Amino acid sequence: MNLKIASALIVVSILGMLSIILPVFILDDLKPYESPLFPLIRTGIEGISKYSLLFLFISGFSVKLFSNVPFWIIGLMSMFLFPLATFCEMIADSSSHNMFPFEFIFYGLFTIPAIIGAYASHLIKKFVITKM
Description:
Strand content: under 5%
Radius of gyration: 16 Å
Oligomer: single chain
Structural class: mainly alpha
Number of strands: 0
Helix content: over 70%
Protein backbone atom coordinates (compact mmCIF):
# COMPACT_ATOMS: atom_id res chain seq x y z
CA MET A 1 0.00 0.00 0.00
CA ASN A 2 1.50 3.29 -1.00
CA LEU A 3 1.64 6.40 1.12
CA LYS A 4 -1.11 8.27 -0.76
CA ILE A 5 -3.65 5.51 -0.19
CA ALA A 6 -2.64 5.04 3.45
CA SER A 7 -2.87 8.76 4.15
CA ALA A 8 -6.31 8.96 2.47
CA LEU A 9 -7.55 6.08 4.63
CA ILE A 10 -6.20 7.68 7.80
CA VAL A 11 -7.80 11.00 6.88
CA VAL A 12 -11.20 9.43 6.19
CA SER A 13 -11.04 7.51 9.49
CA ILE A 14 -10.37 10.71 11.41
CA LEU A 15 -13.07 12.57 9.47
CA GLY A 16 -15.51 9.76 10.23
CA MET A 17 -14.79 10.09 13.93
CA LEU A 18 -15.17 13.87 13.75
CA SER A 19 -18.44 13.47 11.83
CA ILE A 20 -19.96 11.69 14.81
CA ILE A 21 -18.35 13.77 17.57
CA LEU A 22 -18.79 17.31 16.19
CA PRO A 23 -22.62 17.30 16.36
CA VAL A 24 -22.31 16.66 20.11
CA PHE A 25 -20.93 20.19 20.36
CA ILE A 26 -23.34 21.67 17.81
CA LEU A 27 -26.61 20.28 19.20
CA ASP A 28 -27.66 21.60 22.58
CA ASP A 29 -30.35 19.05 23.38
CA LEU A 30 -28.24 15.89 23.34
CA LYS A 31 -28.25 13.88 26.55
CA PRO A 32 -24.65 13.12 27.62
CA TYR A 33 -24.01 9.41 28.08
CA GLU A 34 -21.55 7.71 30.39
CA SER A 35 -18.96 5.36 29.00
CA PRO A 36 -15.87 3.64 30.42
CA LEU A 37 -13.40 5.33 28.05
CA PHE A 38 -15.07 7.40 25.34
CA PRO A 39 -18.21 9.23 26.52
CA LEU A 40 -18.09 11.66 23.55
CA ILE A 41 -18.20 8.79 21.08
CA ARG A 42 -21.11 7.17 22.88
CA THR A 43 -23.00 10.45 23.06
CA GLY A 44 -22.41 10.99 19.35
CA ILE A 45 -23.55 7.49 18.41
CA GLU A 46 -26.58 7.49 20.70
CA GLY A 47 -27.56 10.96 19.49
CA ILE A 48 -26.85 10.43 15.79
CA SER A 49 -28.29 13.31 13.82
CA LYS A 50 -28.71 14.57 10.30
CA TYR A 51 -25.54 16.61 10.85
CA SER A 52 -23.56 13.44 11.49
CA LEU A 53 -24.90 11.85 8.33
CA LEU A 54 -24.21 15.02 6.34
CA PHE A 55 -20.65 15.20 7.69
CA LEU A 56 -20.11 11.54 6.79
CA PHE A 57 -21.34 12.24 3.25
CA ILE A 58 -19.02 15.25 2.93
CA SER A 59 -16.11 13.24 4.34
CA GLY A 60 -16.54 10.48 1.77
CA PHE A 61 -17.05 12.98 -1.03
CA SER A 62 -13.98 15.06 -0.23
CA VAL A 63 -11.60 12.15 0.34
CA LYS A 64 -12.63 10.50 -2.92
CA LEU A 65 -12.30 13.82 -4.73
CA PHE A 66 -8.59 13.98 -3.85
CA SER A 67 -7.68 10.28 -3.92
CA ASN A 68 -7.99 7.18 -6.06
CA VAL A 69 -9.10 4.87 -3.26
CA PRO A 70 -12.19 2.82 -4.19
CA PHE A 71 -15.38 4.44 -2.91
CA TRP A 72 -16.52 1.42 -0.90
CA ILE A 73 -13.22 1.30 1.01
CA ILE A 74 -13.60 4.99 1.83
CA GLY A 75 -17.04 4.27 3.24
CA LEU A 76 -15.85 1.36 5.35
CA MET A 77 -12.86 3.28 6.66
CA SER A 78 -15.08 6.19 7.72
CA MET A 79 -16.34 4.03 10.60
CA PHE A 80 -13.20 1.97 11.18
CA LEU A 81 -12.25 3.56 14.50
CA PHE A 82 -15.61 2.88 16.16
CA PRO A 83 -15.29 -0.92 16.45
CA LEU A 84 -11.77 -0.37 17.78
CA ALA A 85 -13.13 1.98 20.43
CA THR A 86 -15.82 -0.60 21.26
CA PHE A 87 -13.22 -3.33 21.78
CA CYS A 88 -11.15 -1.02 23.99
CA GLU A 89 -14.20 -0.25 26.13
CA MET A 90 -15.11 -3.93 26.38
CA ILE A 91 -11.60 -4.66 27.61
CA ALA A 92 -11.77 -1.81 30.14
CA ASP A 93 -15.24 -2.76 31.39
CA SER A 94 -16.59 -6.16 30.45
CA SER A 95 -20.13 -5.21 31.44
CA SER A 96 -20.29 -2.47 28.81
CA HIS A 97 -21.42 -3.14 25.25
CA ASN A 98 -23.42 -6.25 26.10
CA MET A 99 -25.23 -5.92 22.74
CA PHE A 100 -22.12 -5.25 20.67
CA PRO A 101 -23.09 -7.34 17.61
CA PHE A 102 -26.00 -4.96 16.99
CA GLU A 103 -23.65 -2.05 17.49
CA PHE A 104 -21.48 -3.33 14.65
CA ILE A 105 -24.55 -3.60 12.41
CA PHE A 106 -25.27 0.07 13.08
CA TYR A 107 -21.65 0.95 12.32
CA GLY A 108 -22.11 -0.83 9.01
CA LEU A 109 -25.24 1.19 8.31
CA PHE A 110 -23.44 4.41 9.19
CA THR A 111 -20.94 3.73 6.40
CA ILE A 112 -23.68 4.27 3.81
CA PRO A 113 -23.56 8.11 3.75
CA ALA A 114 -19.79 8.06 3.23
CA ILE A 115 -20.11 5.42 0.51
CA ILE A 116 -22.76 7.50 -1.25
CA GLY A 117 -20.63 10.63 -0.92
CA ALA A 118 -17.55 8.87 -2.26
CA TYR A 119 -19.53 7.37 -5.13
CA ALA A 120 -20.99 10.78 -6.01
CA SER A 121 -17.47 12.19 -6.10
CA HIS A 122 -16.37 9.24 -8.24
CA LEU A 123 -19.17 9.93 -10.73
CA ILE A 124 -18.37 13.64 -10.88
CA LYS A 125 -14.67 12.94 -11.45
CA LYS A 126 -15.52 10.40 -14.13
CA PHE A 127 -17.90 12.82 -15.86
CA VAL A 128 -15.41 15.71 -15.78
CA ILE A 129 -12.56 13.53 -17.08
CA THR A 130 -14.64 12.14 -19.97
CA LYS A 131 -15.73 15.65 -20.97
CA MET A 132 -12.13 16.82 -21.21
